[in-house]
Write a structure and sequence with these properties.
Elements lengths: L1 E7 L4 E5 L3 E7 L19 E7 L2 E10 L5 E5 L7 E6 L3 E7 L9 H9 L6 E6 L6 H9 L2 H4 L3 E4 L8 H8 L3 E6 L5 H8 L25 E4 L5 E4 L13 H6 L2 H6 L17 H7 L5 H16 L2 H4 L4
Length: about 325
């Protein structure tokens, strides 16, 4: 039978077959695809072929994983030389952030986009908890509209007053959407406002640390009553990219890449090279200085990773 992976716990997987039946599955032997060093070889969203266990009518074995049309991976928080699947075969991603409670980390949005841009996955950036935003927050939010200018959808939303909920329903309808965000941004509460029947577990911000607590342990796909599926993922504390090279960063800042063919050098990193179209565009106010600063920070971070740490298989 063919099915789609709804949940991955590392040892067992829930697979949906025949549109509504869910079967508990395990992996047969070692499965390795795409030459990636993964902590979780099977991702939520994977299309798999399963075979029922002879000794148990309620369990099956995953025999094969179909080629993925896209996937989102991050550096494993625990094993820096390995990658961790967030999801595969998605139509779009919805990134939830907040201006406050918790405060938005500078560069966090750009770091997330580095994971989705290689497959040109559309991203909706939702600034949640808009009901508690101050005038200063809204002034800062106007600067984040730069993401709409370069092709991403940007929305304000609130579970308290309902702002943005109807727009989000329209955007999620009939799509497979990865839901992600920092811990504590109200991801589960917002999803419950969109689809109350899910009743995802929620938790308050820690008074001690001012940070969110993990309420989702494993990624899991949920069906929406109005059409489509969402993949709920654990809250993200931080994003690192020791597995990337400089040109991976350079090619995946979309507004930089669009004009990079105008640079004098084909391998221009947009730092000190002469006749750089990107730096010229920044000086003219055509490209965000904020995005450029994050870009430079990411380049430095990747370069500062010891070569032998990033190539431990050499």
């Amino acid at each position: 039978m063919k099915g789609i992976v709804l949940k991955s716990t590392g040892s067992w997987y829930l697979v949906r077959v025949d549109d509504d039946k869910i079967i508990k599955c395990r992996i047969a032997g070692k499965i390795k695809l795409d030459d990636l060093k993964l902590t979780n070889p099977v991702a939520v969203g994977d299309e798999v072929t399963i075979e029922m266990e002879p000794s148990d009518d309620n369990q099956a074995i995953i025999k094969n994983i179909s080629p993925r049309r896209n996937y989102v991976v991050r550096q494993s928080p625990r094993k820096k030389h390995q990658l961790h699947f967030l999801a595969s075969n998605i139509d779009q991603a919805l990134l939830i952030v907040t201006m406050r409670e918790p405060n938005l980390k500078l560069g966090f949005i750009d770091r997330f986009l580095i994971m989705t841009e290689p497959y040109s996955i559309p991203v909706i950036i939702v600034f949640n908890k808009s009901d508690i935003n101050t005038q200063a927050d809204m002034a800062l939010f106007s600067e984040y509209k730069i993401y709409a200018e370069i092709g991403y959808v940007v929305l304000l939303a609130s579970s308290e007053n309902g702002e943005g909920i109807s727009e989000l329903k329209l955007l999620l309808k009939d799509k497979i959407t990865l839901i992600a965000g920092q811990s504590g941004v109200g991801k589960s509460t917002l999803v419950n406002s969109i689809e109350p029947t899910l009743d995802l577990k929620t938790e308050e911000i820690s008074d001690f640390s001012g940070k969110g607590q993990h309420t989702t342990t494993f990624a899991q796909m949920h069906r929406l009553s109005f059409g489509g599926d969402i993949i709920d993922t654990p809250g993200i504390k931080s994003l690192s990219f020791s597995h990337l090279e400089v040109m991976d960063i350079t090619h995946n800042f979309r507004e930089f890449f669009r004009i990079s063919d105008q640079c004098r050098f084909s391998d221009c990193t947009h730092r000190n090279e002469p006749q750089c179209a990107v730096r010229s565009a920044i000086s003219k106010g055509m490209i965000s200085e904020i995005r450029y600063q994050t870009y430079l920070n990411l380049l430095s971070e990747v370069e500062d990773q010891n070569y032998w740490e990033r190539h431990d298989d050499v």
